[in-house]
Amino acid sequence: MIQSVSFIGLGAMGWHMASHLTQVCSQVYVWNRTFAKAKQHEQIFGTQAVDLTQALQADIIFSCLPTSQDVENLIADSQLKQGCIWVDCTSGVPDIAKRLNQQLKHQGVDYLDAPVSGQTIGAERGTLTVMVGGNQISFEKARPIIQAFAGLIEYVGDSGSAFAVKAVNNTLMATHLWALAEGLCVLKAHGVNLHSAINCINHSSGKSNISENIMAQRVLSRKFDKTFALNLLQKDIGIAIDLITASNLDLPTLNLIQQQFNQIHKTDAQNIDFSAVVKILEQHNQLELY
């Protein structure tokens, strides 16, 4: 019986995700490297800010950290409660998920890779898409708790499968953004009103989430609101490319997308929204999309 839940990592996504857990569990512990942020979460949402040792004694432990390596390092130094379930919402590496699954199994702990999609607005509204890989019985136990911040929960297969789906999904998002930006560059060069063009595209076969929710709102508006840092998307594309390489697949488009998105150094990429990558196209073609 699940009596306590903890959430580790109160970043842009985790902050909102953890806030929904009080709807499904009375004991919700939160931990963050900056403890003041956990205390702030406690004051606003009624969770309980605790030290890491206590957070790791919950029946279900959620983690949402920048990389799989961060999670692996945390687990390496931890004593976990036997029988608990670790639900890793990091956009992580499939091979590390498999390794952690085997490692924790020896400690009587089940590990699920459960990355999310929907950006910060989905986290705030509790409507995220959650992809889950790992032991299916443990998934069913954790599902009612995951539901607190999810609009869709989909079990996709064995350990590492969900991380693979997330990496491919985000690489496709990058592909849609780049292709749409190229198309708009063509239209801009020929004097077409881009706002009108986007409206046509969104009522035609060329529409995508990028055309409906990103291009006009962030690029054509010139706001480039930072909701998903470019360096995180670069990381996810890299994970997808590693999967391609490991399988000896010939997929030139996705490899080309990585080349385009990696033109911005990761040091700079961490400070800008992923949508700002279109500025590369603008500079190359000496035009501006607005």
DSSP strand (E) fraction?
A: 5-15%
Task: Supply the helix-strand structural class.
Answer: alpha/beta
Order of helices and strands: EHEHEHEHEHEEHEHEHHHHHHHH
The helix content, as a percent range, equals 40-55%
How many beta-strand elements? 9
Detail the poorly predicted runs.
none
| Average pLDDT reading | 97
Our measurement of the CA-to-CA distance between the termini, rounded to an integer number of angstroms, reads 54 Å
- Helices, by number, come to 15
- Report the principal-axis shape: globular
How can the largest sheet be summarized? 9 strands, mixed
Rg (C-alpha, Å): 20 Å
The gist of it:
This protein is an alpha/beta fold and 290 residues long. The chain has helices at 14-19, 35-45, 52-55, 68-76, 94-105, 119-125, 136-146, 161-189, 194-201, 209-213, 215-220, 230-246, 252-261, 266-269, 278-285; strands at residues 4-8, 27-31, 48-49, 60-63, 85-88, 110-113, 116-117, 128-134, 150-157. Helix 5 links the parallel strand 5 and strand 6 (110-113).
List keywords for this structure.
alpha/beta, 290 residues, 15 helices, nine-stranded mixed beta sheet, globular, single chain, 9 strands
